[in-house]
């Protein structure tokens, strides 16, 4: 994912639009692979995956939560926001994977 992000930033920090278009298309394809979950059940699903030791499922759930917030950015689901804030405070290690970091970074980059 980092290589894709590098494609649309030239050396002088000016965006390369062809790379950006490719990146957005790749982002859209990647988002289809994430799990969607009810905001009220996100914490339970992450705790179950953590007990099972399934790090990939945790990544997919977190990325699905970011996707959900991005799709509903006009009025974000309060339960989802509070759950993510709680997880960031108590279990910050689950946000340390490269996939989750890239998805959050790219979402912030696209929205700003």
Q: What do you see in this structure?
A:
The protein is built from 6 helices and no strands. With 112 residues, it is mostly helical. It has one domain (33-111). The longest helix has 17 residues, at 55-71. The two termini are 19 Å apart. Mean pLDDT is 77; it is low at 1-18.
Distance between the termini: 19 Å
Computed Rg: 15 Å
If you average the pLDDT, what whole number results? 77
Indicate the overall shape.
globular
List keywords for this structure.
single chain, 112 residues, mainly alpha, 6 helices
Helix and strand topology:
Elements lengths: L1 H6 L9 H15 L10 H11 L2 H17 L6 H13 L7 H14 L1
Helix pairs in contact: 3-4, 4-6
Compact summary:
Helix content is 68%, strand content 0%. It has six helices and no strands. It is globular, with a radius of gyration of 15 Å.
């Amino acid at each position: 994912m980092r290589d894709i992000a590098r494609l649309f930033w030239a050396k002088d920090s000016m965006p390369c639009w062809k790379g950006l278009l490719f990146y957005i298309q790749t982002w859209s394809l990647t988002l289809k692979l994430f799990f969607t979950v009810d905001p009220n059940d996100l914490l339970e699903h992450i705790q179950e995956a953590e007990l099972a030791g399934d790090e990939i499922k945790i990544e997919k759930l977190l990325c699905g939560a970011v996707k959900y917030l991005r799709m509903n950015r006009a009025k974000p689901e309060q339960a989802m926001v509070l759950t993510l804030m709680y997880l960031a405070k108590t279990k910050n290690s689950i946000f340390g994977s490269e996939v989750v970091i890239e998805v959050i970074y790219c979402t912030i980059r696209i929205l700003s």
